[in-house]
Amino acid sequence: PPSPACPARPTPTDPRTPYTAAGTFYRKFTALFYYSFRFRRPVAMVTCSRPGKMAAEASAAAGEGALPAAAVPSGSFLQRYLARLGALRLGPDNSQDAGGESGRRTELHLLFDQLISETCGPGGASAVAGTRPEDVCDLLVQACKLVQHNQEHLVNKVCQLIHHLLNRFQVIVDEESLKYLLPYFISALKQCSSWTHVEILQALAASVYNNGPKCQKYLPDLLGKNGLLIQFSSPAQTDTELKRAAVHSMANLCLSIPGQLYLEDPYRELCFQTFLSVLQSSKGSGVDDITFCMLLQNALKGIQSLLNGGKMKLTQTDQLGSLLAVLKKCMFHGLPGLNIEMPAILYPALLSQYDSSVSVKQEKLEQSNVKPTGSRRKKPKAKQKMDKPEQELKEEQERDSGGRREKPKWHGNVPQDPSLGVWNWPSDESHTSFLKDSSPWRAHAWKKISSSDSEYSDAEGGMQNKTRSFQAKVRQGALTCFLSTVKSIEKKVLYGYWPAFVPDAPGIGSPQSVSLITIALKDPSPKTRACALQVLSAILEGSKQFLCIAEDATDHKRAFTPFSVTVASSIRELHRCLLLALVAESSFQTLTQIIKCLANLVSNAPYSRLKPGLLSRVWNQIKPYIRHKDVNVRVSSLTLLGAIVSAQAPLPEVQLLLQQPSFSGLSDSGSTTPHNSGTTEWQGKAPLAPGEPPLMSEPIPAEPCWLIRLCISLVVLPKEDSYSDSDAGCLATTGVYEPSPVRLESLQVLTLLVRGYFAVSQSYLLELGEVACKCMEETDPSIQLHGAKLLDELGVGIVQQHKPDSAVPSDQRVPVDLVVTFWTRMLNGPLPGALQNSQHPTLQTSTCNALSSILPEAFSDLPDDKQILCITILLGLNHSENPLVKAAAARALGVYVVFPCLRQDVMFVADTANAVLSSLCDSSPNVRAKAAWSLGNLTDALIINMELMGQSFQNEFSDLLLLKMLRSATEASKDKDKASTEFQNLLQVKSNVVRALGNLLHFLQPSHIGNPRFSEPIEESIQALISTVQSEATMKARWNACYALGNVFKNPALPLGEAPWTALAYNALTSVVKSCKNFKVRIKSAAALSVPGERKHYGTPEQFSQIWSALIVALQRSEDTEDFLEFKYSASLRTQLCHALLHLLSLADEMDLPSIRATVAEHGQLIGSYMLQYMKSGVEDEGSGMGENFPERDSILKRAIEHLRGIEELSGGRLMKRGAVAYLEDILEIHNSSTALAEV
């Protein structure tokens, strides 16, 4: 019998439900109320609160005598019900039996009730455990087969059962069961009365969850033009509960699984428009708030599923603008004190176009009952007798509210320090007004009203809390959907809507526009605040190209505000608001998101173009959180510090911050982070190893860097005591040290600091080296790897500091003897063991990179056994089976081969060549790319040795090895595996091997060229270079090919001008110099054409004339470009072309002068103007290679004039009076006159 607390279950024979209009309404109402009541509130009835006893009573009434749920083995639970359902099959004569059908329906009702009873509530946990999904599906299919569509109450009950069991057991319906259930639901929706549709749609939604690709056959009936779901969710539908169930089913259909079929475009577009229209609709007067919130949630989930599927592309402006408009509206749904009016469509704009109507209205209750004082964290007094559901709802709401503090103050062990930035904003008045303005938002009166003060009853108060909870879920759903939208559209499209979601500094007298920051500062739910910060982080991530236009370093006094100033103002406002949120937040999870959002902002903001001070505020404000009791907050704080030291490093502002007093702004109260008083007790005082030079006194900075000290202490020193329970969830290396994430992030900060501010960290060189060694000695692979990366950055910093073009004065560089001590300690420590740790190939790769960063001057001073150790390990690792290790070893050998102390060692060069050639044939594109780079370095070393040591080195080098290198490089230049995923690596292979070919052809001696074994390889290698110049390869490969041909022309032993390949090479270069889109390639081809030093190398007069004419055409086209970025190289191109023309004139003979004279007669004025520019300018570009001063250019022109005058004298004056000589003399005279005037 039903409980007195709920109405009796209506039956078909109930006299209260006659089939009249009024009776139909009453029947629908009582049925819906009965079923919604029994499942929304656990009362003492058969379906929920007393499953064991009441189920047994119900079973006994049916004559079954079932055992209680606790006594039923989980394995036989569903099989027992399947057997009972099988016994209730409809017999052939039941239609003749007046009571048979009615009795069967009663048994089914009781059986379904008992099944729901045994699986709901805490007592159903034992039944859920060990249940197979296929048994659940079989049971549901069997139940549907026993229920006919004309038995509407049973249809309603079986749909409740399906919805309940699928959610309770978390089962995804298999495809076979789906083939029966979906047609059953579709027929039920068409045949049954409307009062059953809600339960049917809920069962449908549970069945199609994660089964969208399997429902393609039934989509026309559900999502077609006149589909059932489309009808139930149309704007004309007045039943909100029915619309909610239909939208829920549609959202579950849109949920896709990666790798499976997806909704076709028409269905997808129809669903999107349906969801959008639901979100754009307003709540009707008679619609319940909670039902409307659930409707919005389902629509938001549907759009999110469409976006996450990857096929939904928001390409149309109206489509994207409509979605963003409703998302912004839903972001603030139910936010206390806020009501915004949004247009139907948001359009891209530089400034915020829509002045959203913001009304801060407090309810009468809040105006009359809010007390001006008191803490917002004070809990309302609860009545002595409070129903359990209301109590749980209040507790959930209390947790969801997050306990935001009304005044910004430090929480827990984070101290308050008024000198740390937030309170020192330039405009204190605006800051105070912001806090005053935000107080009515942040201090919600409904959190302060006690039960004795409130005019509402407990039931009303519980309903208010429940409504606010559902409204918060709508806001969270909108933000989650917005996050999916941000990830599914291009950044350049997204930034058109930047003003609509990112705050800008409010104008004078105007309120601040609502944005994501409004939610982060004023929403009472910590989950919602965290969602808003996640969306803001996603927007800021990768925004460097957009934010780089910001600039406010100089005061703009103009009649208008430039867009760069507007973006800069937005960046400043983001800093201000995020720091306000930082000091006001108490939820650890939300606090972590705030700091991560700050890190994304710092990583992308152009601080070099902004007024200084922003980073100082962030720096000082984040310091105390390094010692926060939550480990995730500590890790994110270190991440933010790493972002600061890596943001456009080096910045003068950060340089000053690093030199602040040690641990400035950090309080010791409650801290468990180990302190470092400047001593290094953790470092062992081991005696010097054999061959290690005496330790030089390490320079100590006048003001130690507190950040380096802090990170070192976090990595190597044991913590004093535990922080909090949150540490227990982290993967710590041991219980003695900090949690592993904290140590890893500290190592990352050290690595970034060394990379960006080596001048600060070089004073801790030996100490940081010991940190790297200690990390590589540990067992945690992640700690080992980060230690190796730190060592690599230290080595790279030293090498960069000692480069010839380094701006660091010699007396401020790390002394070479200290570098020798550093690397000797590393090689005496765990570095060799890490290099040979084959179980950890990633560590081997990082240590290989570290070993390649040894300073060449220091390597020569290392003990011989250490040098041999490095070379032996690298040669051995070059044969590793792991491609990452092999690639790193090949690269390291390419670095070593150019060391002055190693490149003259013929045996080492030969060993390196053999190792590199073997890697050049590897199947991995990455290995081949590194080997090609090393081969290019090796051939550079051959050229250097040839110039410094002469023919002696060439004679010692093996001819067979040289031939092998020539053939391997030629073969590698044909690598065109475009189907490979590592296509970029293949392009690097081509670029480097053509560079190597040019060096090898330059290195050849006459004995090699005359050797028949070399003839064919030489021909093939030159053809490979010509093909690369003329091909559609990358500009880098073509540039290297032109450079290589220039190297080939430098070898006097090659038959340049006589060999058949001469014309092909010149034709390729002249074609490029005239028409290549890339000006750098043109410059290098012109440079190659000016390399030959004798007239015979240019071939016949026709060939010479062709080269001359090509250079003139290239000079005419030197300003013609479709790419504006190439225009900056036009001056360098003209410089190189003029140099090449003068070089040809200085080599021309009598047969070449007619073509020169004709060109001068036709284009003399143009050539003369460019020649004068060439003589006057001192343009020097990295791509031109031209850096002559005025006297050198004068001498080039004079040399050409003297050469032509000599030809004129030999020809007996047959040349015309106004020939090339006179033309050049006029140019020289004009140049000399202008120079004399400039000096006066």
How would you characterize this protein structure?
The termini are far apart. The chain is mainly α. It is built from 56 helices and no strands.
Distance between the termini: 118 Å
Beta-strand percent range: under 5%
* Helical/strand content category: mainly alpha
Structure annotation, total helices = 56
General shape: elongated
Number of strands: 0
Report the average pLDDT across residues: 78
Q: Percent helix among the residues?
A: 55-70%
Main pleated sheet: none
Q: What are the low-pLDDT stretches, counting only 5+ consecutive residues below 50?
A: 1-75, 90-98, 357-457, 667-682, 684-702, 977-981, 1179-1191
Q: Write down the Rg.
A: 40 Å
Please outline what is shown here.
By secondary structure, the protein is mainly alpha-helical. The chain is elongated, with a radius of gyration of 40 Å.
Secondary structure elements and pairings:
Blueprint: H1 21-40, H2 51-61, H3 77-86, H4 100-119, H5 125-128, H6 133-145, H7 152-169, H8 175-191, H9 197-208, H10 219-223, H11 228-232, H12 240-254, H13 265-280, H14 289-308, H15 317-331, H16 364-369, H17 388-401, H18 428-442, H19 458-488, H20 491-494, H21 498-501, H22 516-522, H23 526-540, H24 544-547, H25 563-584, H26 588-604, H27 614-622, H28 631-646, H29 652-658, H30 706-716, H31 740-756, H32 758-761, H33 765-776, H34 781-801, H35 816-828, H36 831-835, H37 841-851, H38 856-861, H39 864-877, H40 883-896, H41 900-903, H42 906-920, H43 925-949, H44 951-956, H45 959-972, H46 983-1003, H47 1006-1009, H48 1012-1030, H49 1035-1049, H50 1061-1075, H51 1079-1089, H52 1101-1116, H53 1130-1147, H54 1153-1176, H55 1190-1210, H56 1220-1239
